[in-house]
Amino acid sequence: MSEKKTEMDALNEYLIKVSNMNKVGIRRKILEIRKFLDTLSNKNLFDGKTAAKKTNTPEEIRETYTHYCNVGQLKEILKKNNIPDDAKIFIQRVEDVYFEEHGWGTVKKEGDMYCIEKRLIDKARPGGEFHNKEQYPDMNEETIKNILDSEKDLDELKEEYVPAWHPCVFEDDDNIYLCAFY
Fold first, then answer.
1. Whether 8 and 76 share a structural domain
2. What is the pTM of this model?
3. CB-based contacts of 38: which residues, under 8 Å, 6+ apart?
4. Same structural domain, 10 and 85
5. 134 and 98, same structural domain?
6. Which residues contact 56 (CB under 8 A, 6 or more apart)?
7. Which of 46, 39, 48, 179 is nearest to 101 (CA)?
8. Which terminus of the chain, N or C, has fewer Cβ atoms within 10 Å?
9. What is the mean pLDDT of residues 141-158?
10. Residue 64 and residue 130 in one domain
11. Is the pLDDT reported for residue 2 higher than 80?
């Protein structure tokens, strides 16, 4: 494992420890998190090259965001905090400004809306189901043309995901929360 990954793993473990401090006041947590952020900026561990792109491949995410949450850490916090199997999983809301002004990248996946639109496009192609007037008597050429034209925007229908920074639990419930950033 490279030195950068080792430092980031240590910093991530430290942040998880701080976020799960039960008997420590908020001021102490804030001071600990500030110390963590100072360490990050002093080490200049994030070069921003990959994140500056609008989208990332899963491989780029794995290589670049080594300090983000992984399955092992999630399993550890679930076990340590006795989180039940029926607990809900919440994700932190991320504002557009992080993507628009700070260069955060995403991984795009073909979700439900993408697949629905793709099926419509396939049915509208020459020889597709929409050309069968018996099965689709109300389907006209203009509608078919509009469906086929929508293919140029198909990529915009993909779901966008960001890696989780770390898992978090709170004393007032037994759910798990995934933080998108520190």
1. yes
2. 0.54
3. none
4. yes
5. no
6. 50, 64, 105, 106, 107
7. 48
8. N
9. 92
10. no
11. no
**Same domain, yes or no, for 56 and 126?**
no
pLDDT tens across 20-54, in order?
555 555 555 556 666 655 555 544 444 444 333 45
Highest mean pLDDT among 27-36, 66-75, 83-92, 139-148: 139-148
> Degrees (nearest 5) of the Cα angle 89, 94, 97?
175
164/88 Cα distance (integer angstroms): 16
* Structural domains of the chain, count: 2
Same domain, 117 and 167: no
Structure-token match 């792109």, residue found: 53
**142's tokens:** 């203009």
Nearest to 62 by CA among 103, 5, 10, 110: 5
Residues spanned by the domain of 28: 3-103+159-179
The two tokens of residue 49 are 């090259």
